[in-house]
Amino acid sequence: MGWAIALHGGAGDIPLSLPPERRQPREAALRHCLQIGVAALQANKHPLDVVELVVRELENHPNFNAGKGSVLTTAGTVEMEACIMDGKTKNCGAVSGLTTVVNAISLARLVMEKTPHIYLGFDGAEAFAREQGIETIESSHFVTPENIERLQQAKEANRVQIDYTQPIGKEEKAERSIADGDSQIGTVGCVAVDGNGNLASATSTGGLVNKMVGRIGDTPIIGAGTYANDLCAVSATGKGEAIIRGTVARDVAALMEYKGLSLKEAAAYVVEKCVPRGNVGLVAVSATGEVTMPFNTTGMFRASATEDGSSEIGIWPSLQD
Prior knowledge:
Elements: E1 4-12, H1 20-42, H2 47-59, E2 80-86, E3 92-98, H3 104-114, E4 119-121, H4 122-132, H5 145-156, H6 170-175, E5 188-193, E6 199-205, E7 226-228, E8 232-238, H7 240-245, H8 248-259, H9 263-274, E9 280-286, E10 291-292, E11 299-306, E12 311-314
Parallel strand pairs: 3-4
Antiparallel strand pairs: 1-5, 1-11, 2-3, 2-6, 5-6, 7-8, 8-9, 9-10, 11-12
């Protein structure tokens, strides 16, 4: 048994031809956040503190679909959501519909620790943020030129976009190279376990490009996009509707709990058998320090490290996958 950490920056149809200028900033951010998480675990920080710290860093990175990089609704607004969960106690907190909160994951933790509830949304969550003195900013801060363009692309194609969806249609492909990566951006999440088997999970997102105002995805739903118990911690990414239907994060834990599967076996079964291809990826750690990061999309931005010295930063399937 030893500490372990895994994080993701979204899954989807990520082309092998993704240009370096699109790929490298995300890889560098994953590496930076992984180092922050490893240092915190080595300093004996509780996994709950570690996953919040890492996800805050990812939220502050504009190339991921959370915090500063959050994608836009069909009305051109942001509605961010996040969730955090402690494995030992199963205490958890979730938020949706945030428009001014700089770090949604930290508000989710305050919901867990400062209220009798699990989930707050929209005006109530915003009011709670102001009451708690958490950092807020004008919602225009989140409306970036890149995300305005992503929304326009999605509207032109008349669709709601999953993380890293590629442009479609002959004309659109001609106008916007399929490898340009401009429409690509992903949900973020982190899972961690310490040397005592304490587990935690955190996930944060801006949702889907061109989503309806008021739409809620899998990220803040306990057992769908985020879950942790005394066996494992899971954070999922992909198409929220498919992840909710598959109760993805809870099913990984349930297969371990009721069927005696290993973390890797349970996660692989859920990703390959329970959710249609092209819809999901996840990162997970077990109480004994195992790590797995399966996905059924073309790729998933991901990183992991364990106390025994192994580490990985990847996008596409590796040889051992």
